[in-house]
Each structure stands twice: as C-alpha cells, then as structure tokens.
UniProtKB/TrEMBL annotation:
It comes from the Bacteria. Belongs to the PqqC family. Keywords: Oxidoreductase, PQQ biosynthesis. Gene3D superfamilies: Heme oxygenase-like. It comes from Donghicola tyrosinivorans. InterPro entries: Haem_Oase-like_multi-hlx, PqqC, PqqC-like, Thiaminase-2/PQQC. This is Pyrroloquinoline-quinone synthase. The gene is pqqC. GO terms for molecular function: pyrroloquinoline-quinone synthase activity. The keyword Oxidoreductase applies.
Amino acid sequence: MTATREEFEARLRQIGADRYHDKHPFHHLLHGGGCTPDQVRAWVINRYYYQHSIPMKDAAFMSRVEDPEMRRIWRSRIEDHDGTAENEGGIKRWLKLAEAVGLDPDYVQSCEGVLPATKFAVDAYVRFVRDKTLLEAVAASLTELFAPAIHANRIEGLLKNYDFANDVSLSYFRKRLTEAPKDVAFGLKWVLDHAETQEKQDAAAKALIFKTDVLWSQLDALHSAYVEPARVPPGAWQPGTGMLLAKAS
C-alpha cells in the first residue's frame, strides 16, 4: 500500500536517524578531540575525494535531465562546490582546511593518498547517480536532510578541541549550513512529488540507504587504516612520510 506523503517523509527521515554517519565511532573521535593530527589529516585527504567528486556527480545527473528549469536549479549545486566569480566554492574552502592541518594542498588535490575503499565508495556513488533513475538519484542526495546538524556539531567540536580550527579553516562547514537546507528543500519536495507509488517509494528509500552506506563506508575505511591498530593499505597516505607543509613537518 502506498504511504501518504507524510508517512513517506517520515520513513526517509527515519533512515537518517538509524543510519547516518554521525553515529560512526570515527566521527565521535574527531568531534570529541580524540584524533591525532595525522588522523585529522587522513580524514581531510580522504574527504577531499568525496568533495571533488560531488560536482562530477551532479554534472552526470544534469546530463540526463531534460527539464531546463530543473537543470537551472540543480546547477547551483555545482557552483556551490566549484565556485563562481562571487563565490570561491566548497572545494577551495576544503583546501584551506587542508592547509590549516598542515597538508600540502597540491598533494591533497592530486588524490594520490586516498584510501582504495574511499575511491570505491565515492566512485560507486557517482555511477549510481549516472545510471539509476532520476528519482533514485535525487533521493540519494537527501542525506543533506541530516547534514546541518553534523556540520554544527563538527564546528563546535573542532573549535573546542583543535588549534587549527578557526573561521577560515572551518569556512566550508559554515557555508554548508546555509547551502544544504536550500538544496534539500528542493530535493525532498521533488522526491515526495514523484514517488507516487509504493514501488517508487521503496526505490527512493533504498537509494537513500545506499547513500548512507557510501558515507559510512568512508569512515570505516579511515577507522581501519588510521586508528589503532592502524592498517594503512599500500599507496594510501602514510603518516610521517612527507606531503606536509614545512611548518607541519
């Protein structure tokens, strides 16, 4: 039986309550000040791979959208990350964080030190959005429903516990406090409008679960590689092996 609009929205929100990555042990470690400088750097390096892939994901989505109005609305997501003449963009803000924690921004941009599992998870998300239905692609983006809370908690935790944290280094997260609600307001309405059968509601819910799995698996990879007992796979960034700014070496 097809759920009402209100019931379906509640189902989507419950997925976040149950599965969002704010519950992962690595986030508790990070926000609570328990990460070493190199564990923070590993997080910055690997999260960059996700950040830099989001505009490619959105471009892949837009290439399949025939409605000019929807493309115009969705295009702002790419501009939020890549930047415009007036807005430096989330990618550049993330590189400010990289520099603040002592990493060479050029090295971070190269993505050479990214964990294999991070690449697999993020690349799978890009393929998902490229290949699945538009409904599933939009539904997968609805993790943004839960993002403002984690950004606010992260800002508070990082400012409290780490010397690198300031308005410049945390500018990415502060900006997302206003960008994410704008995006999710459109995305949620679009999913609720278009998931008019139980089959479509189930597909949308599964897509959102998939995205929570993508985010969770990235933190699993970090925790496995860089938290004791650390097991850094070949090719991934090795703490203490360079790629740091002179002041951090």
